[in-house]
Amino acid sequence: MAASLSAKLNELRAEAITKDDPSLMEQAIEIASQPNFRMSVQDLIKRTMRRATANGATKVLTYLLDLGADVEAVRSHETFPWTGDLVENDADYDYNKPHMDVLEILVAHGWDVNTYDSDQGGTPLLWSVLRYPELVQWCLDHGARVDDPDYRPHALGYSCDPPQFTADGTETRHSAPRGPLTILGRAATDASVETFELLRARGAPMDPRTLHIATECGRLDMVRHLVDVVGLDVNAIEYHLGDCCATPLCYLAHPPRGNNENYRAVTTFLLERGANPDLPSGLPGCPIMDSANLCAQQFHSEVFLNAVKAWQAKQQSDGADEGVPDTKQTDV
Hints:
This protein is an all-alpha fold. Helices cover 46% and strands 2% of the residues. A two-stranded antiparallel ribbon has the order 1-2. Keywords: ANK repeat, Repeat.
């Protein structure tokens, strides 16, 4: 009997979300209200609220919140469509984009857009929607922070401050801590230049790896903006404590990017803006070659090496042209 009731409850719950029908949810709650049932009503409401949020079941979500569901229990990642059997299998469905109407309902019931599960490596909503300008603006309009000092992702952080060493050569880590990425560092991966500038205008701190990140992703438009408009240093050195160093060019010299034609334009652009492929950037004992060129030679990154050779040949050609006097006759 208990097993059949549990099956019935799960069926009603799934159908309520699929059809966005609160009346079916009412029936499920009636089952959970029975004495000694294995799932409490509050547990059912909490679990279903998360599914309704992820699947855009706005009527069911509103019904549950009006019943007293704890809106603060919703984490930012739970606002994204769930790819399980409750979401329609649609090749054109964007599983990376939250439902705007769901977000409006949550905020209307007191949800904080800055909430996230730091213990699980989660991120605030704004960090996760940077590819969608309308959602970025919505987050900012509803109080999203561009500077979150509590954010500590599990991903490795970096610094562009050189480490210091004691007299015996021991590295002291305090001089260059492994800090978290900032939202501008995240924006360098997939946000538009316009979104990047919107966040910067709101006071978002620059990540020391911003240019390195955009270069690593092969984003020529972002790289051009960071160099020509923001003024980032094309020869900035990124220090991995206890490991190695890298300039933006080093990312392009290393495989697989060093053999990928899609990165040639970024390589050429950085060279034209003064990036030095022979700049020593290694630390003593670093296992990686100490310049982009040496790295490319070590790993046989032919696309990168050919791009450097073409740039050098152009430099020599331009220099030769400048040294040739103008012998054109002028009319007297």
